[in-house]
Design goal:
Length: about 475
């Protein structure tokens, strides 16, 4: 092994094993010399490797606690209560865009600032974003408190048992409160992601998930109500995020610690401009995907939601794990754009597509045919998926081979107008087709609606647009400092 311009060069080995062996150099603790293009490229891959490895390990542990908690919660709650919980979670997820995309706008600004070494702009952006999100959280809580008494909760979630009806309002109140508190806390992980150190937030999430699992067991042992169970499911994670933020601003990046005097009204406009496009994209994505549970609940009743939502959780494992390799690419693409490293962008896009195919496609084939057996081992006889549903979920999973890698490039290139237009069309088509198909074929119609809408309005346009974007990037000067 030799050292060339600060980058380790391995003796070439044939095949995939050789590439994996040579990639081990990115797991070293010492940073690469970033004074050369080769060193900057290697340093990006080093950060991505550590973020992927540690965040992936953390997510495996987190998903393990989730796998344990799902059968516990299914066994503890009635079918009506569990279906209501799944529907409620989906509806609260739809509230995500209420952050106005500020957090994701902050991610873009911090990635740019990191590429330029501009700590002052980064600190002012953090303080301004936090102030804006705290204001939004306060408005959400005030509006919800004013509307609470006027909402027919049992009718909204289409439940007919007395226990589910009495728990609906209080459980929703806990969930909305947790959502509001999570708005300002959410920027902690985005700050770490912008600096390609999101593995730290994953480690805190591990603590939160283990704490939540312990709290769930305590709730079941004490035979507490659904609202208390929601506290267990959400509250510990919020506490972990709060502690993560305290460590971030005190020890890891103290120069980012927000102060009142750092709030900059001039930064509000770019945060809202960039964040607004992200918000449109979020809304369209949430309408297109998170409303599936609500559509099924309204057409077929809350009891039918778990027949769809639990298999979806199983098929979401591979994309979730893959996301920990892909998410660090977003700020890395942005930082490389600031430096004009176009070759690194093209090379990394190819590698990310190959990685996604290697994970998603085998997983899709296996789960399509073995999924019912896995579900039986996981949750027993609670769900009975049809082959049509499993086939649709398998195709949806395979389709994500393109979606994830291309989305990270488009995010890093700030190509939000294109993504927003595609997402809006996809969301409208998805909901319309899903309603039509659920009426006619049952719960599997929701995923087939997603497949059709996603293929026509996201996958095909992206295949056409991305090569043109790459050609334009090669002819574009680096972003101004």
């Amino acid at each position: 092994m030799t050292e060339i311009q600060g980058v380790e060069a391995d003796v070439a080995l044939p095949g995939v094993s050789g590439r994996l062996w040579s990639s081990r150099r990115y797991l070293r603790l010492r940073p690469f010399d970033t004074s050369t293009p080769e060193g900057r490229s290697a340093e990006r891959y080093r950060r991505i490797a550590w973020s992927t490895l540690l965040a992936g390990v953390g997510k495996v542990i987190s998903m393990g606690t989730g796998f344990i908690s799902v059968p516990l919660v299914i066994g503890y709650l009635s079918d009506d209560q569990y279906g209501m919980w799944l529907t409620m979670s989906s509806l609260v997820a739809v509230l995500g865009p209420l952050d106005l995309g500020i957090g994701l706008g902050l991610l873009t600004i911090l990635s740019d600032a990191d590429g330029r070494g501009d700590r002052e702009t980064a600190r002012r952006a953090v303080a301004t974003s936090l102030t804006m999100l705290l204001t939004i959280a306060a408005v959400v809580l005030i509006v919800f408190a004013a509307a609470y008494a006027f909402i027919p909760w049992s009718r909204l979630f289409n439940v007919d048992t007395a226990a589910a009806a009495s728990d609906a309002g209080p459980a929703a109140a806990v969930l909305v409160t947790s959502f509001a508190l999570g708005l300002p806390l959410g920027i902690i992980g985005l700050i770490q992601l912008a600096h390609q150190s999101n593995y730290i937030s994953s480690l805190w999430a591990i603590a939160g998930n283990l704490g939540s699992l312990a709290a769930i067991v305590a709730v079941i042992v004490l035979h507490a109500s659904l609202p208390i169970l929601v506290v267990a499911l959400t509250g510990v994670g919020l506490l972990a995020a709060l502690l993560n933020g305290a460590a971030l601003f005190r020890y890891q990046r103290p120069w980012l610690r927000p102060h009142r005097g750092d709030v900059d009204r001039k930064l509000m406009r770019p945060l809202l401009r960039v964040g607004g496009l992200f918000m449109i994209l979020q809304i369209a994505g949430l309408v297109g995907y998170q409303l599936d549970n609500f559509v099924i609940a309204q057409i077929m009743g809350a009891r039918s939601v778990q027949e769809y939502a639990v298999p979806v959780k199983l098929f979401s494992l591979a994309p979730t794990l893959l996301s920990f390799a892909l998410m660090p690419l977003w700020p890395a693409y942005r930082e490389s754009l600031a430096r004009g490293d176009w070759a690194w962008i093209s090379r990394t896009l190819r590698r990310s597509l190959l990685l996604a195919a290697a994970i998603n496609i085998p997983s899709a084939v296996f789960l399509t045919f073995a999924g019912p057996m896995v579900l039986h081992l996981w949750v027993g006889d609670k769900v009975h998926p049809t082959f049509v549903l499993m086939l649709g979920l398998g195709l949806w999973l395979a389709m994500n081979t393109l979606n994830g890698p291309l989305a990270m490039l488009l995010n890093g290139a700030n190509a939000m107008g294109f993504q927003a237009a595609c997402a809006i069309l996809m969301a409208v088509a998805n909901v319309t087709i899903s309603i039509f198909l659920v009426y006619r074929v049952g719960v599997s119609g929701a995923v087939w609606g997603s497949i059709i809408a996603q293929a026509v309005f996201v996958v095909l346009p992206s295949i056409w647009y991305v090569p043109r974007l790459l050609r334009r990037l090669r002819q574009t000067p680096p972003l101004p400092a």
